[in-house]
Write the structure tokens for this entry.
Amino acid sequence: MENVQCQCGHTNPPGTKLCESCGRSLTEKDQNSKLVDMRYEGTARRSQTYNKSIIDKIWNFFSSVKVGVSIIVILLVAAAIGTILPQQAFVPASTEATIKAYYADTYGSVGRVYHALGFHDLYSSYWFITLVGMLAISLVIASLDRFVPLYKSLKNQRVLRHPSFMDKQRIYGSGAGSEDTLEKAEAKLKELKYKVRTDKSGLLAEKGRFSRWGPYVNHIGLIIFLFGVMLRMMPGFYVDETLWLREGETRAIPEVPGYYLENKNFKLETYTGEGEDAKFGEAIDRVGTVVKNYQTDIVLYQEPEDSLPGATDNLEVVQEYPIRVNQPLKFDGYAVYQMDYKLNELKAMTFALTNKETEESLGELTIDLINPAELYELETGSTVELLGYYPDFSGFEDGEPQTATPLPNNPGFLVKLTTPETPEGETSFITIQNTVEPLGENQYKLTFQNADTRNVSGLTVRKDSTLPILGLGGLIFMIGVAQGMYFNHRRFWIQQKADGTILLAGHTNKNWFGLKKDLDRVVESAKLPAYTDQQDEIDKKEKAEKEGEISS
Amino acid sequence: MTVKKKKRSYVRAAILLVMAGAIVFTIYNSFAGGKSELLQVGDEAPDFALVDLEGKKHQLSDYQGQGVFVNFWGTWCKPCEKEFPLMENQYQVYKDQGVQILAVNIAQSDYEVRQFAEQRDLTFPIVIDKTKSVMEAYNIRPLPTTLLVNPEGKITKIITGEMSEEDIASYMEEIKPE
């Protein structure tokens, strides 16, 4: 493409619609139209000009507002579809295979497709991230493509424009003027806080140019916001982990290197309806129990600087703290919240060694289900030897008792009972409410006495270092919106021809009413010729023609 | 003008490349799950120190110069149970050739682990990760997971799931010192 030479002698880059220097229309279409298109000041936008190389083509694709809006619409529709079935974080399955099976089993073929397309974990699915990334590209390119020429053009604008530029402005007027008209107009415009530049027998008054940058500022805000979201996916910036901690346990905190938590005690308190709580009595009667407090008393430990994972004998206490709902434990940028609980998990079981016939007890023993001992000696000289322990007994396989998990949900014990009466020992396999005697009838048995339980706290570990970035992005976005919405860029061009005729034109990016109000004051004080709003006239004419068509 | 055009074209290509790179990077991170220090083949194996059933401390770095076969397991895990006798067989073959096994149990009681080892006559060291801190440092998810650490202390393979005896033999061969 070739540069465009204007009648005034200025050479414009290819694709320019209005001469950069004098404002003459350069294309036939613009020359024939009643009003000029002032968007982007008639400058050449890259995307509208070149379309040869592959880079041009990609650039042009992303610079299109239509493409940008389409991406937003697709994202919204996808996000909406993502709410139809539960996201994977909320389904009762944890491994990839079981999650896949869950969707297929629960929702049939719909679930299968849903899972295959990645809707089950939408925000992490590669195509969703790609679309968000494309939106970011679109924001950057569409902004650059418009901002750069607009900025250049506004920076280099001339005071004197060609009459054909002036009379194609929406606000236009011409008529006789006196010698001091320009001076008076300049004084009044300055009083109205316009920046006024003069050149020979003309002036350009301008106000609020910065409002033109509003859309680009708010795009910068969005880009910063998306950058923050991107950082979230990087290690170390964002942590959201669940930790189930049983009373008495000390565990490394997931994703928090070097720190450990011990659960001293979990308690769940309810309103009693008595004493201080008496005022709640009525409500409690109506709805049943009402929880007052969920609390985990924890100890936070830190391992010494040079310590290795696994070496936990030298942990240092950092602090003790009661974690309650909305009162998280905070340390080193992390927060640990009380989120969930399980009450009464088995912890220890007490049995009596009894003679099956006489029901006489030879003493009691307590088996710690978390850390069982091998041999239990009773005062009577009898012993109970633990031959095998199956914390979550799930049946036999090849005659061997099996355990499904390491948690004492359904403890099974293979024990050898030795009493003075049976020095050889008797073997028995015990589960809750069931005893099997694999090697023949026994004289003695273990009788269940009672069980100790403990509670489990469900804690959530959180850290989000991207919040300041997201906040900054949001703030810049809002500044951009305010800049573009609540301010307008107003310009007046006034020039006096050699014969004394005044030409007057005005333009604003929004709020024409405000522009006219300003102009009315200038017209009054400087005795400028009357102006018309050419757009109004075109509208009126079209309306009249339409009505004419209807009536005829 | 052509120089200017060319320059502009480079700038545009650069902008597109940077942004496409950011997308790819984000997708990669998202698939890595945002986990800190996700271990990969070629990484230095994080050092750890755990105590075995006899009360003896085993520190990974003490075995520098030997190949270490680090196996994470639990007594409830069926594939772990199946591969243990196979590991024991191969341990007998390779222990004199500079290959060590460290079987890391996930936070179970001494009793359960001892019982399990005694029933199967296991002779390689079995250590217990009582606070799950080593599991955390190694980001272990499924059991069993086996890591091969070469004599230089680098991870050469990460195996999740059950191994056959041939697999185990070939892995030990792989990390055997020269």
Q: What stands out?
A: The two ends of chain A are 49 Å apart (CA to CA). Chain A has a mean pLDDT of 90.
